[in-house]
Amino acid sequence: LDVESAKKMVCLKDVEKLLGHCTFIGLIARPSLSCLSSIYVFVAHHRDKVGPFALWASVREELITFKGLIPMLEADLTLVVNPTVMSVDASEWGLGAVQQTFDSELVTET
Predict the structure, then answer these.
(1) Which of 29, 64, 84, 88 could hold 97 in an S-S bridge, CB 3.0 to 4.6 Å?
(2) Assessment of whether the complete model's pTM goes beyond 0.85
């Protein structure tokens, strides 16, 4: 995060990759993702444009904040497994959500 936070001009593809990594890491403790907002707006705003682009100060601050949260992220892996499995997905024209209850042992194995 240091490199991206320090750059003045960035390629959108690099910002998208960094956002993907932040999201993956943040899934350990989902509330950590709440500090990322401007970066999503930045990506959407520049989606159809040719770069590189000046990184917004708000995006830089979010990345610095998220970097500070990373060492504190934790998840309790000893919690009881919920047998109800859910999945969601979205696209530009719709969204979907499904859920199914399975045997707890099967959920634990996968």
Answers:
(1) 88
(2) no
With a CB cutoff of 8 Å and minimum separation 6, the contacts of 49 are 12
DSSP characters over 52-69: -EEPPHHHHHHHHHHHHH
Contact 101, 84 (CB under 8 A): yes
Exposed / middle / buried, residue 85 (Cβ in 10 Å: 0-12, 13-18, 19+):
middle
Q: Residue 110 corresponds to which tokens in the numbers above?
A: 């996968």
Q: What is the pLDDT of residues 24-70, one digit of tens each?
A: 999 999 999 999 999 999 999 999 888 789 999 999 999 999 999 99
| Segment (H or E) for 11 | none
Q: Is 86 helix (H, G, I), strand (E, B) or coil?
A: strand
Helix (H) or strand (E) holding 25: helix 12-26
- CA dist 6 to 57, 69, 79, Å? 10, 18, 39
